[in-house]
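Feature request disguised as a bug: please show the residue count (147) next to Heme-binding protein in the output. Example input:
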Amino acid sequence: MKGWKIAVAVILVVLVGIQWVPTHSNQKNTDQGKDFLTMYAPPARIGTLLRTACYDCHSNHTVYPWYNMVQPVAMFMENHIVQGKKKLNLSEFGGYSSRRQRSKLKSMASQIEDGDMPLTSYTLLHRNADLSDQERRTIKAWIDTKI
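Example output, currently without the count:
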């Protein structure tokens, strides 16, 4: 019984202690001319869907939820955003070569169509980012016109 109390106390100390571990905010000034939405000027509905379902993880402008102030959630989100931006950064899309832009567009269309994006781990907490089949088809059809 005494070992159990010590274990709980240690866990509490660790959970409280990690609250002071700093994370970096994903808010960066970028050239708006390189932003995907500026470059391709999608219809308003598609732009809204892309902003809602993609931009938090794949741009330089994350809208953070309240629970990002709690560790270890903030560390998890920071890592998730860093990894997402490595694969695709919509804020810097115009900086990609033409060949890479086409490749990214094809990948986006494929992953949206297959339901691989947005990730389930994201849509569980962000219900408005959970795209319907019709929204997926609409986005894919629009992206297909840009490839």
